Amino acid sequence: MTKYILIGIGIYLAIQIAYRLSKKFSIVKSRWMYMFDGLKFSTEDFYTSVQELIQSKEMSRVAIEKVKFDQTNIYASDQLYLRIAREESMFLICAAPFGTGFFVSWWFGEPIDWAKEIVLILPIIGYLLRKTIYTKTFYRIDVDDMFSEMVKHCVKEAIENMIEGKGIRKPLEREYQETRVTPVLAQ
Question: For residue 1, is it within any domain?
């Protein structure tokens, strides 16, 4: 009997791990995008600008890297994103030419912490850890929100620098309104 329980737990864990390995976020919280019609700009230059602005803010424990994501088929090239992460918060920023213009978008959410994810799916132990160690304090939530606001501010400033002197209208504050996503597991 114990043998079958252990095999069942092993299969359950394997399925959970395989499912979670296919995701980039554990939870998507919001997203935003804007199209700058008539603007030609370099993706690399935009990412460099955002990275320099974020580094100038001297936020602790922030990791910035460029990552490539596969597109829908083998003929499409990979898309370069700028990943900005701090503890349990992550942005994926995309900037790229599209048609006659250039767009900027971001996805904001929680990155996958593999060790935490594996431990939390364990029966009883996962429940106890979720209720004790992995409960967020008000301060932790405040710091996560400040990280989010600082990154958004840096992206806005990079956009303003990108369009300066090019005759492109600056987005209005209401156009920076994010689409809040009911927290769902990202695919």
Answer: no
Query: Domain total for the chain?
Result: 1
Q: Is 99 helix (H, G, I), strand (E, B) or coil?
A: coil
Report CA-CA distances (Å) from 160 to 83, 100, 140, 166, 171: 20, 19, 30, 10, 9
Number of H helices and E strands in the chain, helices first, is 5, 6
Domain-embedded: residue 17: no
Q: Residue 18 domain-assigned?
A: no
Which structural domain, as residue segments, surrounds residue 146?
Answer: 24-184
Cα–Cα dist 158/171, whole Å: 12
pLDDT tens sequence across 27-45: 888 899 999 999 889 999 9
> Is residue 60 a contact partner of residue 48, using CB atoms and an 8 Å limit?
no
- The whole model's pTM is what? 0.76
The gap between the terminal CA atoms of the chain, to the nearest Å, is 36
Q: Are strands 101-111 and 179-184 parallel, antiparallel or unpaired?
A: unpaired
